[in-house]
Amino acid sequence: MKEFLLLFLFYTFILYIDIFFYYIYIKIYLVKNTDSFKIFKKIIKLFNKFKYIILFKRSFEKCSSLVSFSIPNSVISIGEYAFGGCTGLISVSIGNSVTDIKDCAFSGCINLSSINIPNSVISIGFGAFGMCKNLVSMNIPNSVVYIRDQAFEDCSRLATVNIGNSVTYIGSYSFAWCSSLTSVSIGKCVTSIGDNAFYGCKELTSVTIPNSVISIGKRAFENVNLSTVITLIENPSEIVSKASENRTFSLNTFNNATLYVPVGSLDKYMNTVGWRDFLFIEEGTGPNGDGETPETKKCTKPTISYQNGKLIFNCATEGAVCQSTITDPDITTYSGNEVQLGVTYNIRAYATKEGYENSDVVTATLCWIDVEPKTEGITNNVASVRAQPILIQNNGSTLTISGIDNETTINVYNVMGRIAGSAKGSLGTTIIDTSLQIGEIGIVKIGNKTIKIQIK
Fold this sequence. Notes:
By secondary structure, the chain is mainly β.
């Protein structure tokens, strides 16, 4: 097993050395050449040599001759300012392996009018698309969890935004000064709308706030002339009142808009700071609503299994499609003479279906343990190491571990080293009730193998 890990480390090192020199080459090449078509062909030819690529910080910053770009499936991350200030860039196609669009990745691409965000992206960074003044519409897929501060600030032609149902946080100034925005659909998992999130969206006349929202920040809808505010929040939290300079909604909205609230919740809103400042409050779901909050079906939470080298996702909701993200913590850069490899995959999946709310997210960790530890060590030839796949899932504090041989000892510890649960392997699947709490890190020890997990 050690030989396998050393080989893995060696090839990872070679990969990053190649990427480094490739990065330097690209920067020199772009300085010396202005023909965007030649640049494009050369870059793609080089990209396709590698299995995993990170577009590093400022990779193509201010390459004004770049007009279009297709990011291949080998790219897993788009670095800070990677395309920042590419004023000639009009269209970008992002491959379906990208999980992270980092800070200011496309900021200042003032002519960018066409870009897709694939269903693999989890996070959209600070100012990622700031001042992309030619974007007209944006569909944020269900894979995205975080929209960081100023992500789409000052996209002055952006008219429609659809925020997916996995987004939990809309950052401060995310859509501020999107002065052409007329339609925004806020996903059903959003819990927080940050300060100034939609400040200055003067063309926006209606907004629906889902029941999941817990907090709405200062000036979130200031300088916005809403005529209709529909809130599906059954138990409202305080917002900043209209008497404050930091009021959540504009004075015009407080004084002239109609606030629609869930049936049976009128008294709650009339007694909650901020919400009670609306002069016109009605129960219902809008001017054409029937007074009842519409019920949306939700996909069943999927299950994960591992068979014959494949991950299998199953959802009881007929016709549902599972969306998954798999990350390997070993794939990164290192400094030092020793690197401890985990040889694990972290898996995140949920189910989607048109007309249904996304399922809850299921997570799992896939790892391998040695069947014959004696094969570890350095030899002159490549050793064939027999390894046993282990899949670890959790439902709250309860762990389900698949692939364990009978009578194999399993111990679970907290980060302080205290035992949190233990069991013996039984019939391939073992269930362990632990004392770990949601959010805690647990250490699972199976024989001599230890795996770190987070309880979700």
